[in-house]
Amino acid sequence: MLDVLRPGVLDGVTICVAGGGAPLAARVAQLGATVVALAADLDDEDAVAAQVATLGAIDVLVVDAATPFLVAGGGMAALRTAVDGAWNAVRATVNARWTGEGAQGGKVILVAPRADAGEHATAVGAALENAARTLSIEWSRFGVRTTALVPGPAAADEELAELVAFLASPAGDYFSGCAFTPGGGPAPAPAPATT
Prior knowledge:
Rossmann fold
């Protein structure tokens, strides 16, 4: 894949990556961003809030919900882990860093698992897309812009990383409440059975 962004486009930007996301973190760092990890267990609200409080300024929060979903093995438990963990990271960051007197807001990028990653992977994507749309309205008064990446089965890690970097860059300032579907979007539904 060709690089879309110029070197240094993320100089001076601090990006917090939660949930994993090593390829995403590597690409934004390559473009000049300072990357910090939210390494707390995302299911533990108090631990997440405590760690966010120690991280300092954050311009962009990238929540990789795909890795926790895959680690949990798919299914309903993995859906809850991915969606609840993403919400805990977003809420803690917005409350600690982007609201209140003098706050400048920031960007949230929610990354869903690929549509074929397991049972309920598409539900995780739908939940994160809904969160991005809803929060873009609810938190617009704080200057918080939210987007979601809902990758299809053909989405490559490099493609996702480049899109995250694009959304973190100044060009991404024009997007909020959007869902991007690299790699063809959700897997097609199976054909109905015929008798």
